[in-house]
From TrEMBL:
It comes from Paenibacillus albilobatus. One of its GO terms (molecular function) is DNA-binding transcription factor activity. This is AraC family transcriptional regulator. The lineage of its organism: Bacteria, Bacillati, Bacillota, Bacilli, Bacillales. Residues 190-288 form the HTH araC/xylS-type domain. The keyword Transcription regulation applies. Gene3D superfamilies: Homeodomain-like (1.10.10.60), Jelly Rolls (2.60.120.10). Keywords: DNA-binding, Transcription, Transcription regulation. InterPro entries: AraC-bd, Homeodomain-like_sf, HTH-like, HTH_AraC, RmlC-like_jellyroll, Tscrpt_reg_AraC-type_HTH. Pfam families: AraC_binding, HTH_18. Coiled coil: none annotated.
Length: 291
């Protein structure tokens, strides 16, 4: 199926003739955003080697830690936040075209094309599978060292990883119609997510945001909750609270300044909201970090 390109995250590959890349990422602050809400039509693996994080996929949050693998299927809406002060992970991004055959064979028709079209999906979080982690680690090593024939080795590891995922972690299949509708909703709401991220300290109304999506208030609210699993108010408050937690841990701003800078006009409402989401008060959070 043809994918809409206008709102895809840019995915420049180092080698367009061998479209795979790996990022080694570290995060040294609790609460820092690893990546904002976005989607792309590539298959992506996140392999965590140290620390812990929260990765949200299609509105479902996953707590991950050392040794876990996150599978981001094509067109999954995803978002990540560090939950420690020393996080290390690898992000492996694969253009599925790397595995396409130049002829119509059983591998192409049974597996590669359905994966590329979201007709085969994989479980989002994999824990404690030594075999798949070994393949991922070896693939990363091959890509980093780039010895003679590394392309052959990487393709072999990718086929092995997909085989394990198919046998152990294959999940529900989307129909073509379901996939088209999900893509349509993602495209419609991407400007909304971007606007909220850029303007969260400001007053944001449903009328304003629904206008960005070209929807009525009712349909906007329904589809927003369907995509994120939250109401628009809860989504904005969660973002503001996460931003304020980061400032409590890492800045010398006082609590009133932090409340105002993250969109809370009432310090008492901020304190109640913070305790509701984080189960401690802002002052207790600040005290724990001696700032």
């Amino acid at each position: 199926m043809e994918r809409p390109l206008s709102l895809l995250e840019p995915m420049d590959m180092p080698n367009r003739f061998f479209p795979i890349k790996v990022h080694h990422t570290t995060a040294k602050e609790y609460g820092i955003t690893l990546f904002n809400h976005h989607w792309h039509n590539h298959l992506e693996f996140l392999y965590f080697t140290k620390g812990s994080a929260m990765i949200e996929l299609n509105s479902v949050p996953y707590e991950v830690s050392e040794g876990d693998l996150v599978v981001i299927n094509s067109n999954d809406l995803h978002y990540g936040v560090s939950q420690c002060d020393d996080l290390v992970y690898y992000a492996m991004i694969i253009d599925i075209k790397l595995l396409h055959s130049h002829s119509i064979d059983a591998i192409e028709t049974k597996f590669i094309t359905p994966i590329s079209q979201n007709r085969i999906l994989f479980a989002s979080k994999i824990t404690g599978d030594a075999e798949v982690i070994s393949c991922v680690s070896s693939l990363i090593q091959e890509l980093n060292q780039r010895e003679l024939g590394y392309e052959l080795s990487i393709k072999s590891y990718l086929y092995r990883i997909l085989t394990i995922l198919l046998r152990r972690y294959g999940t529900n299949k989307l129909s073509t119609e379901e996939d088209q509708q999900r893509l349509k909703n993602l495209e419609r709401f991407t400007p909304v997510f971007q606007y909220i991220e850029e303007h969260y300290p400001e007053d944001l109304s449903v009328d304003q945001l629904s206008g960005l999506a070209g929807l009525s208030r009712f349909h906007f609210s329904r589809l927003f909750k369907e995509l994120t699993g939250r109401t628009i108010t809860d989504y904005i408050n969660t973002l503001r609270i996460n931003k304020s937690e980061y400032l409590l841990r890492n800045s010398r701003m006082n609590i009133s300044e932090i409340a105002l800078s993250t969109g809370f006009k009432d310090i008492y409402y901020f304190s109640r909201s913070f305790k509701k989401y984080k189960h401690v008060s802002p002052s207790e959070m600040r005290k724990n970090f001696h700032i």
